[in-house]
Amino acid sequence: MKTGKVNNVQKKDNASVAATSEKRVVDHKDKDRKKDVPHPRMQFDDATRVEKAKKRAIVKQTEVRNRVELFRHLPQYEHGTKLPHLEYKFFHLNSNSVHPAVYKVGLRYLAGDISGGNARCIAMLQAFQESIMEYSAPPEKALNRDLTAKINSYVSFLIECRPLSISMGNAIKFVKTRIANLPVTLSESEAKANLLSEINNFINEKIILADKVIVRHAVTKVRDGDVLLTYGSSSAVEMIFLHAHELGKHFRVVIVDSRPKLEGRLLLRRLVGRGISCTYVHINATSYIMHEVTRVFLGASSVLANGTVYSRVGTACVAMVANACGVPVIVCCEAYKFHERVQLDSICCNELGDPDAISKVRGRDEVNHLKDIADNENLQLLNLTYDVTPSDYVSMIITDYGMIPPTSVPVIVREFRKEQIWSS
Amino acid sequence: MPDTHALVSDFLNKLKKRKIEGSKATAKLTAELLRSVISQQRLPNTNQAGALIHAIKAIGDQLTAANPVEVAVGNIVRRVLHIIREEDVSLTTASIGGLSLQGLSDDDDDDDNPLVSAAAAAAAARTTLRPPSLQTLLEDIPPHSAAASAAAAALHHSSSSAGDSEDKTKSTDKNSRSRKLKHNVIEAVNELIQDIATCHELIAEQAVEHIHHNEVILTLGSSGTVIEFLCAAKEKKRSFRVFVAEGAPRYQGHTLAKELVARGLQTTVITDSAVFAMISRVNMVIVGAHAVMANGGVIAPVGLNMVALAAQRHAVPFVVLAGIHKLCPLYPHNPEVLLNELKSPSELLDFGEMSDCMDFGTGTGSPLLHVVNPAFDYVPPKLVSLFITDTGGHNPSYMYRLIADYYSADDLVLQQRPTS
């Protein structure tokens, strides 16, 4: 069964049979595929693998000039070079390779329009739904194998636009398990309807309803007169604040923000628009402001099996300062984002962003000292996207399964995985 | 006199408007200002040192009130006061030494002069309580003549009529003594200015002891001392890399990176949020300081407390480079508030950027949005591994001891006491 062969999520690249521009063949035998497939978590410092991957890639990408040595195992491409190629491929080729809905989502990832684990996951699943609706199996092929191959090709395209988040990886695993488990007796339209409803259920249960449960648990932790701190912009934390405000609790919010994404501004705008009084600081001022704070609420991209929280870079700093000042740190994360991987530091597995975002400071020309020397061989610019917060900094994790300590995460992962395998 | 008034008010203006950047520049300007004040100060015939001290204290009070956060001003004022006291002591000792050849030969023997004996005993008791100062140690004054000089000083202060003290000091000495005092003080202040200017070199000389090959060093923001330190190590052919955190919202890390790259060092610029992520791969954190307080705590650019906590978590040494002019004899009470400055919020959020989503029609009318932009951070002494100053490397727990070398206990409070 395909379940045993399902590749692991994070670096799930080019396990597909994505066609190059010349060939139109969309199917390989299993054995051939195994030989071609690079290791699931491909390390980019292995030159032969990188070559193979490049040959199979839909999009040509140029590597950044000054790579940071410590991160040679991660891809670091120049931004702004992908878009023209993508447009060319889409309009000039037979778009058998990628469905337009998936293409659109990929472009939005590339542009940074969609960000945040939940938003990316939902957008991807909805794009898959559209493509499944319009899918029709070729006559001589089995539905589930062909559909799985198509999904693989979409996934590799999305990876080229932007590396997968862990939430997306888990959702893809879910979809592929469902496809593989389809009874062969179903007709094509029934199978498609089945899949669509399964994906709808996933989105509703695991994301939307889960968020409601988390908010219900979390507002019990907000008291009158609290000063709540949050970092960046997390959808779950925003919902908690808005709901608590609706319930009439009196509290104020401190939003800690950092470069280069400055996501806190978006959250600030939404909260202030609803009438919650906010304080806005940069991450450097965290120790200054932490003395006023009573609770810290953080979002997460994922929680790993050793209890460490994998989230936006800077979360670890905030959690550390909160710990030093004795302020409880509460992480809000839906259970579908948990993962059985373990990680000790932020270097082994991460995502590197656009280095130009570091050298250019938007809106303040007087501090743009680096723009002239960005090509100097002695200078490297490092733009990390994620970091890892050790579990001893986290007081509690609020999930849709309840409020748990970080050490209980592998238990949930185990139960969650069983549920995935045995249900339906 | 009018000259000094103009100079002083000009300097006060600059301090109030925060026009002077950096503690080294402030210290140098303060020292030069005080030097001109001293040279133009007219001294009375008796108690010159007292008059000088009074004048400097008055000015120092004004200066520290203009910019309480810039403690370097107060440091230099207190250094100058200490210099005046020391010079006075050494001059008095010299003159007493001249007298002792005639009269007070050996204090251990029976005192010939009964008037001096009682005072000498009291003064001796007092001197044993006073710790030896750098000046007295350097000039190698033996203890009994130190007691004698204290006795002479005590006599000068205690006797109400100037007549007695006048008899003690030779009248011909008077004018030369006053000229000598000013002259010595100005010389010492010149040395002080020289020390401030060259503190970078002395600190940079110690770089080779601390930086080895294949090291990874982390720093945040920018500091002239750090640049010289790292470049000195590079001169000695040590190969190392530097991670520079940019230090928003001033982005001084970018200037530092530019400087280091120009001098050929491998530099990587990271955001402040990535400090915890990268510090596990770092061997040492080297930073500059704005001021060092008496307990060993550091007033540093904002963000360094976070770096210090991360360094402690990963057992990475946190090294602070500071010239001795940054050592402040005061203890930091609530330093985040009292020794901090809040800068303009426009560096974080543009004015008017949030104006479209704030609705003042509803609610209590209290402001919905605060933007906080502190300039400094306080790093407690337990997070600092080492101070490197121009006098060498020190533990944070040792810094209080250096205060006795450079400052007098009487000068800690610059406000004038009401005349007693």
From TrEMBL, chain B:
Compartments (UniProt record): Cytoplasm, Cytosol
GO terms classed as biological process: translational initiation
Molecular function, one GO term: translation initiation factor activity
Residue stretches of biased makeup (Low complexity): 149-162
One GO CC annotation: cytosol
Superkingdom of the organism of origin: Eukaryota
Designated name of the protein: Translation initiation factor eIF2B subunit beta
Organism: Helianthus annuus
Biological classification of the source: Eukaryota, Viridiplantae, Streptophyta, Embryophyta, Tracheophyta
